Amino acid sequence: MSNIPSERDSFGSRFGVIAATAGSAIGLGNIWRFPYVAGENGGAAFLIIYLGFVLLIGIPVMLSEFTIGRSAQRNVFGSFRKLAPGRPWYLIGIMGVVAAFMILAFYTAVAGWTLEYIFQSIINGFEGLSSGQLNDMYFSFIGSPWRPLLWFFVFMSFTALIIMSGVQKGIEKYTKILMPVLLLLLIVLVVRAVTLPGASGGISFLFKPDFSKITTSTILEALGQAFFSLSIGMGTLVTYGSYIQKKDNLGSTAVSVAFADTFIAILAGLAIFPAVFAFNIEPGSGEGLVYITLPNIFQQMPGGYFFSLMFFILLGVAALTSTISVLEVIVAFFVEELRLGRKAATLLATSSVSILGVMCVLSTSSMADVKLFGFTVFGLMNFTSANILLPLGGFFIVIFVAWYYGREKAGNELSNGGKLKTRYLPFYMFVIKYMAPLAIAFIFLQGVGLIKL
Ligand code: PFF
User: Fold this and answer.
1) Who's near 194: CB < 8 A, 6+ residues apart?
2) Which CATH number fits the domain that encloses residue 91?
3) Which residues pair with 372 in a beta bridge?
4) pTM of the entire predicted model
5) Which positions, given as ranges, span the membrane (predicted)?
6) Where in the sequence is the domain holding 59, given as residue range(s)?
7) Vertex 235: Cα angle to 230 and 240 (nearest 5)
8) Among 414, 64, 83, 376, which residue's Cα sits nearest to residue 234?
9) For residue 407, how far is the Cα from the chain centroid?
10) Residue 103 CB less than 6 A away from ligand 1
């Protein structure tokens, strides 16, 4: 039995909805992952395909999640159970909660590293180090257990404190402050990067497409990046959708959030590539781009101390507004399905996620040799959630709305009971009935190695 309070918490304003949802979408995926994935996949050519996927698949999946959440007014599991009583669709909800556990565990581990790098920026720890030494610094930090563990718990506590305060007084209140701060910090960094001598190489890398760089794997990477970056496929936006008021416009919210997420990814590229080119660094230098390459750049550029500190604070803020959205998936589930109070639910969720989280943190040190299916625990959580659970969740979510919930009910929710014009409805239905499931099935099968191209 569920314990649904008669007055369910909700977002109080339209700006609050956008700040919270864009806060979830904008995170390590935009600032840490996007630049290096784009860097490895040809820059502008990748960006164009990515934009196509955001528009054609990302927005429709996001709209479907909003529709489910706002119709049902429940957590992700409860939403499917309410909209499809007695049917097995609630399994999508269970999968979402499981994915939330996995993502929160490894994502918080990486988010914790930003705190170490904020600390190093404050004490001027990168000064005078060669690129080899910065490389060693990164690997010796993640290779020792204690500091990453400490930062993991600090980050998890920040996340828990915000979630305990509730939807409007926690999530909404903090994202409304943190998101504009993030935008401001990023703009300052972009201005610094594009005014460096030699920056133009980075700008053309990001905006001048070289279509010879496009391969099948570029296309699949772009779709995967769109899913992860938009926070779709695991019910985060079903949960947030359930807090959107009935008078708000779901269509324009989804478009604004997708736009904001993409805009921030482009700005992150504009903050990073011009600097990478100005200092003659390889743009495809992989996951270390942010933690190894950037400190190297910062300590060579005028004002580097200040910009390094700003950059890592930015990364931490972006990660925090995403971790809270993932934790909320679990907390809403515990509150409504296990009849727990919000504080108790948060404590239970964070302590159980932390068991898995500690294993993720230790995956680069004391538990580096513990392998499951050939992965470390960190690798396994990362791979299974992003490459299996998100695409699978996204696939079933659109199938659910298109083939089970149906055009009439979905249209009714999207138009706020006929009050709003929804001229996009036929196109949306076409996309979620055929295009999105096919495309997602394609990356999923390729991702798990069932088809090879
Ligand atoms: N969208 C976040 C990012 O780009 O960093 C990551 C994320 C958050 C993925 C929430 C999934 C999710 F449910």
Assistant:
1) 203, 270, 274
2) 1.10.4160.10
3) 375
4) 0.93
5) 12-32, 44-68, 89-110, 149-167, 179-203, 223-243, 255-279, 305-335, 347-368, 388-406, 427-451
6) 14-447
7) 80
8) 64
9) 29
10) yes
Surface-to-core class of residue 168, CB atoms within 10 Å of its CB (0-12 exposed, 13-18 middle, 19+ buried): middle
- Amino acid symbol at 261: D
Give the ranges where 86-145 is alpha helix by DSSP (H): 90-122, 131-142
With the C-alpha atoms ordered 34, 35, 39, 40, is the resulting torsion angle positive or negative?
A: negative
> Which of 5-9, 97-101, 310-314, 383-387 has the largest mean confidence?
97-101
- 41 within ligand 1 shell (Cβ under 6 A): no
Which DSSP symbol is given to 128?
A: T
Please count the structural domains in the chain. 1
Predicted confidence (pLDDT) per residue in 359-372, tens digit = 999 998 889 899 99
Distance 206 CA to ligand 1 centre (A): 23
Whether 113 is covered by a domain: the verdict is: yes
Which residue's C-alpha comes closest to atom 13 of ligand 1?
231
The whole-number average pLDDT for the span 176-185 is: 90
Is residue 87 included in any domain, yes or no? yes
Q: Ligand 1: does its nearest atom lie under 6 Å from the Cβ of 317?
A: no
Unique residue bearing structure tokens 């581990």:
109
Residue 9 lies in a domain: no
Tell whether 5 is covered by a domain: no
Which ipTM score applies to this complex? 0.99
**Residue 257 is encoded by which pair of tokens?**
């959030």
The one-letter amino acid code at 289 reads L
Closest CA to 258 of 41, 14, 48, 50: 50
Q: By the 8 A CB rule, do 46 and 269 touch?
A: no
pLDDT digits (tens, 9 = 90+) for 53-92: 999 889 999 999 999 999 999 999 999 999 999 999 999 9
CB of 231 closer than 6 angstroms to any ligand 1 atom:
yes
Residue nearest to atom 10 of ligand 1 (CA): 231
With a CB cutoff of 8 Å and minimum separation 6, the contacts of 84 are: 90, 400, 404, 405
What is the average pLDDT score of the chain?
Answer: 91
The answer to whether residues 363 and 376 touch, using CB atoms and an 8 Å cutoff, is: yes
